[in-house]
Design a protein that fits this description.
Blueprint: E1 7-15, E2 17-18, E3 21-22, E4 27-32, E5 36-40, H1 47-54, E6 62-67, E7 70-71, H2 77-82, E8 85-89, H3 100-107, H4 114-127, H5 129-132, H6 144-156, E9 162-166, H7 174-189, E10 194-198, H8 201-207, E11 210-215, E12 218-224, H9 225-229
Parallel strand pairs: 5-10, 5-11, 8-9, 9-10
Antiparallel strand pairs: 1-4, 1-6, 2-3, 6-7, 11-12
Bound molecules: adenosine-5'-triphosphate.
The site of adenosine-5'-triphosphate (ATP) has 10 residues, from α1.
Length: about 240
Amino acid sequence: MSAHVSNILEIDGLDTSYGRIPMLRDVTINVPRGHVCCVLGANGSGKTTLTKAILNMVRADRGKMKLNGEYIDSWPTHKRIEAGIAVSAAAAGTFHKMTVEANLKMGAYYINDKAILDERLNEIYRSFPVLRERLAQKAGTLSGGERTMLAIARAVINKPNLLILDEPSLGLAPIMVVEVFEIIRRLCAMEMSILLVEQNAVKALSVASTGYVIQKGAIVFSGSAEEFLSSEYMKNPVM
Ligand code: ATP
């Protein structure tokens, strides 16, 4: 594919609605390849709606979207996933009655070659040592932080072109937030392209190169991490 394209994802003028109620309004976002881009917003601002629209689980009323330089507006959800968009959502995405190992293998369901699967699993165990210790444990018995790690690992195992992390710090104890962001920093060092949707602006900007603030479905601020840190917005970042 077009390796020279500098943005892995480009969203231009996206509108969505729930019935007659408009939700996203004229949302324009670029996710630079090999970097973390964050979208910051309070509860109900439209962050999850944005991630659903990227997967075409919420229909776009207007706007254009490109993945890796290619227009994907007409692509159904499964085609977008096959093209390498992976989502890890904080509150969902793990099978509680299955072991950690089985969950990881479910994430890698389309890798048929055992040698490649073993290699990917080993990479995951290196990046997520906490999971290696709990391979035989049922996912439902993990702590919230461990479950978040598992959800991220399951999305990462396929080496996605674009990893979307939907509020990975949600509901976690501060110590686990630190660990989850350490993982994100490691993925970032591996030049994974990540769209990080977060309420925790300080944490998100500690890993992101660029970011956007979404309020009531519209982008109200955007800039580089440096621009954010010196902005008025960061004087009151708790939304
Ligand atoms: P949170 O951090 O609380 O998850 P969010 O920024 O992810 O918030 P969204 O889940 O995108 O917010 O929701 C944005 C708005 O759209 C909210 O007001 C929500 O109530 C509304 N909404 C979400 N899903 C639907 C739906 N299926 N039908 C109607 N309204 C919806």
